[in-house]
Design brief:
0% helix
């Protein structure tokens, strides 16, 4: 199982570069990084099937962090975050 992510600043209409993202399995940090100029982290982490938490620290005056808990099987998962000053959304990407 592998995970990638993408952070888009929907308020400004551009990728969000330099956003810290952390990946946990239980309480153990299993991956981390900062988004590149395209707002992407192509290889955030890998592991076996199970429950993971992905934590974003977006550039927002309101959200200090956005945390998702996801149940993953084998395969590749792309988990994007769309963020603006006062709203955010996510979905299972491809």
């Amino acid at each position: 199982m592998t995970i990638s992510t993408h952070v888009l600043d929907t308020e400004r209409g551009c990728p969000a570069a330099g956003v810290r993202v952390e990946l946990y399995r239980g309480r153990v940090l299993v991956g981390s990084g900062e988004t590149d100029a395209e707002g992407r982290i192509r290889d955030l982490g890998e592991g076996g099937p199970g429950t993971y938490r992905i934590v974003f620290f977006p550039p927002s005056p309101f959200f200090r962090r956005v945390e998702l808990e996801v149940e993953l099987d084998d395969g590749h998962y792309h988990i994007p975050l769309l963020v603006s000053s006062y709203a955010c959304a996510t979905y299972r990407g491809s």
